[in-house]
Structures are given as structure tokens and as C-alpha cells.
Design goal:
By secondary structure, the chain is an alpha/beta fold. The protein is built from 7 helices and 6 strands.
Length: 219
Amino acid sequence: MARPSTIWIARHGETTWNLAGRYQGRMESALSARGVRQGFALAEDFARKLGAGEAIPTRIVSSPLLRCHATARFTASRLGLPIEADDRLIEIAHGTWDGRYRDELAANDPARYRMWREDPVHASFDGGETLAGVLARWRSFARDLATRDEDTLVLTHDAVVRCALVDMHDRSLDDFWMMRVENAAYARVERVAGRLVVIDECVNAHLGAMRADVTTQAL
């Protein structure tokens, strides 16, 4: 029997705005020095898998935003693969929050900030997007992904990974903040009978001491 195809759903490496506690949303931000090292570590993880005869990506799909594409580029170069861009993998639009600092928003937009952190399903952003919108984008992408029998690396963002995990676990978006997501870590997923099944929610061993403290980030 042929083995099921494997999908790795990774968040981008740490960025300078992650370090600053600044909401990124649809705005561009560059990888930090640690984010670059994380990108190399992710590529090395797949190179190790190749050497061990394990499954490795034969396809890479990324959010079009720079931080994802830059993270994907290390693995693409190492494995000799092109990077496909898919707009459905873009980060949640925080609207008027994009580019602003977490602590400033907690002080100046406290009701919305509290709702986002405590009841994210019902949070909405002026000029932005809801989690329901992110989930719909993920489901559209996942339907296409489930029809292709390819080992695929997906590079995307925190909110998208969380929505993907909630969906694959058949859980409610109320559990959004309970999902484990880190910079340059990945969920390992298998395509079984046309369904996406989570095997490991957050693989981070390849990062070692390079793991970022996500609790200080504007998520």
C-alpha cells in the first residue's frame, strides 16, 4: 500500500515586527536575524529527512507576503523547488490595527483588544477580517490540497495555521488560541482518503535554541 502524502504547515520565521510587538496583518515586515537562522534550520530539517530516506516536500506553496516567501526560499533552494504563491494563505487583515503596537492597542482600544484575546470568534476589525473569513480561505485552499497526492510544504501565518488546526481537529474557532503555533515550526499532516489528518501539531525540535518567544508578539 502506498504511503499517504505528507503536508507540512509552517509559520514564517520571526520578523522584526514580531520582536517589536507590532501587528503585521497584510503589511510587510522583514525576517529578523533569528528568523533568517530559523529559515535555514527549517531547510536543514528537510535536508536531514532526505538523507534519512524520509518524505520531503516535492511542492512548496506560500503566502505572497515577504516574510513567508523569504522563509520558504531556504527550503526551496536546498531542495531545488519553485515557490508557488497562493493569496488564500495570506495573514488575517487586522484593518486599522495593522502596523500598530500591541501595548498601545491594549491601552487605547481595550474593548476590542480584550475581545480579540478572550473571544476571538466574535472579534472584528475596522477595515479588516474576521476569523470566519480566514477559516473560509483555509477551507478553500485545503479542498484543493486534499485532491493532490503530493508531499507539500505550506508557508503561512499564525492566524491561518491556527484556523487550519482548529478545522482539521474538528474543533470550534473558540479554541483558536489553544492551538500550538511557533515561528518556523510546522504541523505535520497526512492526506488520508482525501482528508487532512494532523499527526503532530507543532514540530519545533529543529529550532533548538532558536525558538522565539511568541508570548511577546502581537498576535
